[in-house]
TrEMBL record:
Organism: Streptomyces roseochromogenus subsp. oscitans DS 12.976
Protein name: L-asparagine permease
Domain Amino acid permease/ SLC12A: 37-476
Localisation: Cell membrane
Coiled coil segments of this chain: none
Gene3D superfamilies for this protein: Amino acid/polyamine transporter I
Key words, A-Z: Amino-acid transport, Cell membrane, Membrane, Transmembrane, Transmembrane helix, Transport
Length: 488
C-alpha cells in the first residue's frame, strides 16, 4: 500500500491510525539488535569473500590498479548506503528498500525490487553453500564427504540459527565480523612489518620497486581494470543489510548514521589498504584466482598453517554471507507478502518474532543449489555468482531511484528530509545508476559466463511480468482492504 493512500486515510480517521505502521510488514518485530550488532553487520557487509578470496584473481588480471577499482566502486557503494541510510531515518522499516519502493514507486516497483533482491540472495546462498563445501574439502578429513552433503549441512546449521531469534543472528554476525576484521588487521600489521624491514617475500624485496619493475600500476593496460569492476561491485554486496537490520533496532536514528559513515573509511582501510599492501609485497602475476592472496603472501614467508587459518576465515565469511541472506530475504518477503505480492506463508512469524516463512522459501531455493552441487560441482559456484550480480545491481539502482523520488517530494514540501542526507541529489544518484549500468554492460565482454548472464535479463523480465499478472488482483484487494480498515 502506498504512503499517499495511508496519508489520505489518516486525514479521515487520525485517531484510529496512530498506531498503524506505514508498512504493515513492520508489525510484530522485536527490537533486539544493539548498536554493536548494526556496526558489525555493516563491517561484515564490507568484508567478504570478494576481498578474502576474490582479490587474488583480480590482482593477477588487473595488477596494482585493482586498488583504484576497489576505491571507485567503494565510493559508489557508499552513495547507495548513504541514500538508503537517509530513507531509513525518514522511516525505519524491516522491509527496507522494498517498503520505500512501495511508497515512492508504487506496488509494481516494490514487486520488482523484492523479487530481484530475492534472486540475488537465493542465488548468493547457493554460491555460499557451494563455497563452504569447497573450503571444507581443503582439509583431508572432509575430502571423502560428497560436496552436496557438506552444502546441505551448512545450510541446515545457518537455518537453525536464523530461526531461533534475531538476537542470535546478531550475535553470530558480530563474531563473524570480529574474525574477519582481526584477520585483515593482523595481515596488514604483518605486511607493514615486512615493508619496514625489507624482508624478502618469495624472493622479492617489498616496496614500490615490486610495482615499477613489473609493468607499473597498469601492467596489462586499462581495459582489464575496467572489466574487473563488475566483480568488484559484487564484492560490496550486502552493504544494504544495514537498512534491513535498522528495522529491528531500538534507536535507528543514532545507530544508522554511525554505521553508514564508518563504511567509507572501512572501505579505504580494509579493501584499498589491503590491495595496496598486497601489490607492494608481490607482483600481480604471482597471485591466482584459486588461492587467497593472503595465503599466497603468508606461505611465501613461511608462516606455518597459513593456508589452514585463512581457509577457516574464508569459510567464516561464506557462513556470514549465507546467514545474512536468510535474514534479509525473510524480512523482505514478509513485507511483500503483507502487500500481496509474495506467497501468503512468507508473512508468517514465529513466537520468537522471526519471519520463518520467507526464510524457509529462500532455503528451498538453496536446496536446489545442493542439487546443483550434486549435478555439476565444478561449475555450480560460477553459474550462480553471475546471476546474483543481476540482483544486486538492480537492487542498488532501485534504491537510488527511490531516493531521487524522495528528494523530489521533499523539495515539493510533501515529506521532510532528515539531517542525515546524501549530498548533491540528483547528480549523485544519476552518476551511481549510470556507473552500475556500465558495470552490467561490461559483463558482455565475458563470452563464457557474463554474456550468458546478460541474455538471462529478458527471461527474468518475462518471469517478472508473468508473476505480476498472477498477483496483481491480490495486491489490489489487499490495498482496498487496508484502505477500508483505515477509514472505518
Amino acid at each position: 500500500m502506498s504512503k499517499d493512500a495511508v496519508d489520505s486515510a489518516q486525514a479521515v480517521a487520525p485517531a484510529q491510525t496512530a498506531a498503524t505502521p506505514a508498512d504493515a510488514g513492520d508489525a510484530g518485530y522485536s527490537k533486539d539488535l544493539k548498536a554493536r550488532h548494526i556496526n558489525m553487520i555493516a563491517i561484515g557487509g564490507a568484508i567478504g569473500t570478494g576481498l578474502l578470496l576474490g582479490a587474488g584473481g583480480r590482482l593477477h588480471n588487473a595488477g596494482p590498479a585493482l586498488a583504484l577499482a576497489y576505491l571507485v566502486c567503494g565510493v559508489f557503494a557508499f552513495f547507495v548506503v548513504r541514500a538508503l541510510g537517509e530513507l531509513v531515518l525518514y522511516r525505519p522499516s524491516s522491509g527496507s528498500f522494498v517498503s520505500y519502493a512501495r511508497e515512492f514507486l508504487g506496488e509494481k516497483g516494490a514487486y520488482v525490487a523484492g523479487w530481484m533482491y530475492f534472486l540475488n540472495w537465493s542465488t548468493t546462498g547457493i554460491a555460499d553453500i557451494t563455497a563452504i563445501a569447497l573450503y571444507t574439502h581443503y582439509w583431508s578429513f572432509f575430502t571423502s564427504i560428497p560436496q552436496w552433503v557438506l552444502a546441505l549441512i551448512a545450510l541446515a546449521v545457518v537455518l537453525a540459527v536464523n530461526l531461533i531469534s534475531v538476537k542470535i543472528f546478531g550475535e553470530m554476525e558480530f563474531w563473524f565480523a570480529i574474525i574477519k576484521v582481526a584477520t585483515i588487521v593482523g595481515f596488514m600489521l604483518i605486511s607493514i612489518f615486512l615493508l619496514a624491514t625489507q624482508h624478502k617475500v618469495g624472493g622479492h624485496t617489498p616496496g614500490l620497486s615490486v610495482i615499477t619493475d613489473h609493468g607499473g600500476i597498469f601492467p596489462h593496460g586499462l581495459m582489464p581494470v575496467v572489466l574487473v569492476m563488475q566483480g568488484v561491485i559484487f564484492a560490496y554486496a550486502a552493504l544494504e543489510l544495514v537498512g534491513v537490520a535498522a528495522g529491528e533496532t531500538a534507536e535507528p536514528e543514532k545507530v544508522v548514521p554511525r554505521a553508514v559513515n564508518s563504511i567509507m573509511w572501512r572501505v579505504g582501510l580494509f579493501y584499498v589498504g589491503s590491495v595496496v599492501l598486497l601489490a607492494l609485497l608481490l607482483p600481480g602475476s604471482v597471485y591466482s584466482a584459486d588461492q587467497s592472496p593472503f595465503v599466497t603472501v603468508l606461505s611465501k614467508i613461511g608462516v606455518p598453517a597459513a593456508g589452514d587459518v585463512m581457509n577457516l576465515v574464508v569459510l567464516t565469511a561464506a557462513m556470514s554471507s549465507l546467514n545474512s541472506g536468510l535474514y534479509s530475504t525473510g524480512r523482505i518477503l514478509r513485507s511483500m507478502a503483507m502487500a500481496g505480492s509474495a506467497p501468503k506463508f512468507t508473512a508468517r512469524m514465529s513466537r520468537s518474532q522471526v519471519p520463518y516463512g520467507g526464510i524457509l522459501l529462500t532455503c528451498a531455493v538453496c536446496v536446489l543449489g545442493v542439487g546443483l552441487n550434486y549435478l555439476v560441482p565444478s561449475q555450480a559456484f560460477e553459474i550462480v555468482l553471475n546471476v546474483a550480480s543481476l540482483g544486486i545491481i538492480s537492487t542498488w539502482v532501485i534504491i537510488m531511484i527511490c531516493h531521487m523520488v524522495f528528494v523530489r517530494r521533499a523539495r515539493a514540501g510533501l515529506v521532510d528530509r532528515p539531517h542525515f542526507q546524501l549530498k548533491f541529489s540528483p547528480f549523485t544518484e544519476i552518476a551511481t545508476i549510470a556507473f552500475l549500468l556500465v558495470c552490467l554492460g561490461m559483463m558482455w565482454n565475458d563470452p563464457d559466463v557474463g554474456r550468458k548472464t546478460i541474455l538471462l535479463i529478458p527471461v527474468i523480465a518475462v518471469l517478472l511480468v508473468a508473476g505480476w499478472f498472477g498477483v496483481r488482483r491480490r495486491v489490489s484487494a489487499n490495498t482496498d482492504k487496508e484502505l477500508s480498515q483505515l477509514t472505518k
